[in-house]
Write a structure and sequence with these properties.
This protein is α+β, with helices and mostly antiparallel strands and 320 residues long. It is built from 8 helices and 16 strands. The chain is globular and about 60 Å long.
Length: 320
């Protein structure tokens, strides 16, 4: 079964003296914004600092001064960004950033990163960078070019795991698996104490969770399909320090780390990344909006030969 777990991500920061995204905008606006990307809202949780919407295709988080929206599958996230700009106007926007990683099945996507930033360029002037090698794991980042300067304390992390191990794959593709069972398998309630959870198990399989505690958040999206297994974890909590636990559970053959404004990235990676994983790509860039971005791809070197994967040459398949 084919599903593109690789995500697109957008962050929009607003001028806080002009607008509060948390209190000045009704939920109907967010419903329409999500629909522009060809997704819909499943449920939501909130506290005085943040509202988190669980989507049919990942997540939307809203704070007073910013929103973060992540979508997977064949969504057109850039249309949601355009909708926000058109409805709210550029004057209240302090910064727009748009991010997209390499896909398993890029040919099945309705647009490319190049297409998306051409659309954004109609509304805002920006710069784009590629982190990672073109023929391997990589991440594209576009950001608005203006006088906005991020605070050094504005940190976020992403851990993206590929080709998860046999134990994790069997568990996460089990029939009739409950959300509580997945939370227990991933040890989320032990790791994230006092967080409010909102999660959903998709059929036949797949899992998404949002969690918030004050201004902290994390979100996890699991695509456990054998030929395109992928688990993404995003948070403003230090995921590099948590990497050993997640890597032990998921046992991926490869994973990416991406951080914004983690100035101790190299030291943390040396301390926490298991030695059996080898870095194949290391990229750092200080963007003009004052975000210091680090990207690393790690692989688990193969020690033994494996058999070639047989493909169906009769029925049409994305894997072909």
């Amino acid at each position: 079964m084919f599903f593109e777990g690789s995500e697109k991500k957008a962050t929009i920061i607003v001028e806080r003296d002009q607008l509060s995204l948390l209190t000045d905008i009704a939920d109907e606006f967010w419903q329409q914004l999500v629909q522009c990307a060809d997704a819909h809202i499943l449920s939501s949780i909130e506290n005085m600092h943040c509202k988190a919407f669980l989507l049919s295709e990942s997540s939307l988080f809203v704070w007073h001064d910013r929103l973060l929206i992540i979508t997977c599958g064949n969504t057109r996230l850039v249309r949601s960004v355009e909708y926000f700009i058109q409805q709210m106007g550029v004057d209240c926007i302090a910064q727009v950033s748009y991010q997209r990683k390499n896909e398993y099945f890029a040919h099945a996507q309705p647009s490319t990163f190049g297409d998306d930033i051409k659309l954004l360029a109609r509304h805002v002037t920006g710069k784009a960078h590629r982190f990672g090698e073109l023929d391997s794991h990589h991440n594209y980042i576009f950001h608005q070019q203006n006088d906005f300067q991020a605070l050094e304390s504005d940190k976020t992390y992403e851990l993206l795991a590929y080709q998860i191990g046999e134990i994790a794959s069997k568990k996460l593709t089990s029939s009739d698996l409950t959300a509580a069972e997945i939370r227990a398998f991933l040890q989320l309630e032990e790791l994230f104490i006092d967080f409010v959870f909102d999660d959903f198990v998709f059929k036949p399989y797949g899992y998404s969770i949002n969690a918030i505690k004050d201004k902290q958040y994390f979100t996890i999206h699991v695509t456990p399909q054998e030929h395109s297994s992928y688990v993404s974890i995003e948070s403003n909590i230090n995921l590099i320090a948590l990497a050993p636990m997640f890597l032990k559970i998921l046992a991926p053959k490869s994973f990416d780390l991406l951080s914004f404004n983690e100035f101790e990235f190299s030291d943390l990676a040396s301390e926490y990344i298991p030695e059996n994983y080898v870095a194949t790509s290391l990229v750092q860039q200080h963007l003009s909006n004052n975000y210091f971005v680090c990207f690393a791809n790690y692989i688990l070197p193969q020690q033994h030969f494996m058999q070639a994967k047989a493909l169906d040459s009769v029925e049409q398949s994305h894997a072909l």
